[in-house]
């Protein structure tokens, strides 16, 4: 493998014209900020909810909640915190970087907004058509180009926007089904330092693709007050194509040429990446006329995302750049309570355990992920029969993790990196629901 394998992966999400990128809220780089109503109860019972149309992200059958033309607009303001401390960093030649470069970072993740939009239109007494715009996946990080781990990562980004067209049908008084087709637009950016101390430059890859997916769902109320929901979102296969550009690599290329190694030249690149499927199972149980318990289990098929294998196309002779993710399929479990305090005010709270797909062996500066615990609260106020506003606050506690990239063959050209991560996040969500 050549030095070019330093060009790695950066991920961020943009929906409409608003940047929406942070992995601090959800494990892996799934974004679960699609509904202030759902966030207030930590997604407890989300795939079985009869509250509004925003739960259709997890179960398209829930568009049947719309009895009239409805618009639901939601936005989550994510305030992440990540402190990084490098304990060992060496370049490809074994030169110590920790004595000459910053070893700490506390501003590699930025505050951001994650927006969502839903529109529902009944087209008959039992059938509803829906449109939604979401950012299902996203992760963003920028360590800067001077920190000690720069040969493993400087920036990291993937942009995924999904536009969905749905139909939901109420089969009878206790069962509904739904389906959607989705158009996904995704962009990948990869950036890092290349070379070694004294012969150092920067490399940046940008690539994009459009792909398609689907979702299926069913909702049941076998007896009044007991609701069950099942939703499935398919995996999405992307064939990314783009280009790689280098800067400040003249001295490095002279050194590579003298060694008979492939030089770093601007060229086109390609890679295939699969974003995972999502299976949502939920139960809502009315404990009293005012109090509802919601439970959810959400499985994300992270195992489909095996890693990066970037091909540098002709005329380049650079070897592929490889980064193994080693992700494992994981479950998120949540429980929430919804309380109708009055005719106008509804209160919510919830807790969740969101398990990370990242394994210790392959955790990297691109995927410094740990298990998460959520504590959420929220409320909805009905201004009138047609309009309501929703607020939610979530505190996300993330397990401390360590990156130990000292023994993998794919890191030969990146050198060694050991670092400790401490992370957390606060999320404020606001939504407006309008029926007319």
**What spatial form do the alpha-carbon principal axes imply?**
elongated
Q: Label the CATH architecture.
A: Beta Barrel
Measured as a percent range, the helix fraction is under 10%
Order of helices and strands: EEHEEEEEEEEEEHEEEEEEEEEEE
Structure described in brief:
This protein is an all-beta fold and 436 residues long. Helices cover 3% and strands 56% of the residues.
What does this protein look like?
- Helices cover 3% and strands 56% of the residues.
- β5 (112-122) and β6 form a beta hairpin.
- Mean pLDDT is 89; it is low at 1-23.
- By secondary structure, the protein is an all-beta fold.
- The radius of gyration is 23 Å and the shape is elongated.
- The chain has one domain: Beta Barrel (Porin).
- It has a 14-stranded antiparallel beta barrel with strand order 3-5-6-8-9-10-11-14-15-18-19-20-21-23. A two-stranded antiparallel sheet has the order 1-2.
């Amino acid at each position: 493998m050549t030095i070019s394998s330093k060009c790695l992966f950066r991920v961020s999400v943009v929906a409409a014209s608003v940047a929406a990128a942070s992995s601090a809220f959800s494990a892996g780089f799934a974004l679960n900020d699609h509904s202030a109503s759902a966030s207030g109860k930590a997604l407890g019972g989300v795939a079985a909810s009869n509250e509004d149309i925003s739960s259709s992200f997890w179960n398209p059958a829930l568009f049947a909640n719309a009895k009239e033309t409805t618009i639901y607009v939601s936005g989550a303001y994510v305030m992440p915190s990540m402190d990084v401390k490098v304990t060992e960093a060496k370049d490809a030649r074994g030169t110590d970087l920790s004595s000459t470069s910053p070893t700490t970072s506390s501003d590699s993740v930025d505050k951001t907004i994650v927006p969502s939009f839903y529109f529902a239109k009944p087209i008959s007494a039992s059938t509803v058509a829906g449109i939604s715009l979401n950012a299902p996946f996203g992760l963003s990080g920028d360590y800067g180009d001077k920190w000690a781990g720069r040969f493993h990562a400087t920036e990291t980004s993937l942009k995924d926007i999904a536009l969905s067209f749905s139909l939901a049908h109420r089969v009878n008084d206790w069962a509904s089904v739904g389906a959607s087709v989705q158009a996904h637009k995704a962009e990948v950016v990869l950036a890092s330092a290349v070379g070694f101390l004294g012969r150092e430059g920067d490399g940046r890859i940008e690539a994009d693709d459009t792909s398609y997916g689907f979702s299926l769902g069913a909702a049941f109320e076998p007896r009044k007050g007991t609701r069950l929901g099942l939703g499935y979102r398919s995996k999405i296969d992307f064939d990314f194509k783009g280009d790689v550009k280098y800067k400040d690599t003249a001295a490095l290329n002279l050194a590579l040429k003298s060694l008979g190694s492939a030089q770093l030249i601007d060229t086109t690149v390609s890679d295939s990446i699969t974003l995972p499927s999502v299976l949502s199972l939920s139960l809502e149980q009315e404990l009293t006329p005012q109090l509802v318990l919601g439970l959810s289990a959400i499985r994300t098929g992270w195992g489909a995302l095996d890693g990066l294998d970037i091909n540098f196309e002709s005329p380049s002779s650079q070897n592929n750049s490889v980064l193994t993710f080693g992700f494992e399929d994981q479950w998120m479990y949540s429980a929430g309570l919804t309380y109708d305090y009055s005719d106008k005010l509804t209160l919510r709270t919830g807790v969740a355990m969101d398990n990370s797909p990242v394994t210790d062996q392959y955790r990297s500066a691109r995927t410094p992920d740990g298990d998460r615990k959520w504590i959420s609260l929220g409320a909805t106020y009905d201004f009138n029969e047609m309009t309501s506003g929703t607020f939610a606050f979530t505190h996300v506690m993330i397990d401390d993790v360590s990156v130990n990239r000292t023994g993998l063959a794919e890191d030969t050209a990146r050198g060694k990196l050991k670092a400790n991560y401490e992370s957390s996040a606060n999320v404020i969500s606001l939504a407006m629901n309008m029926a007319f």
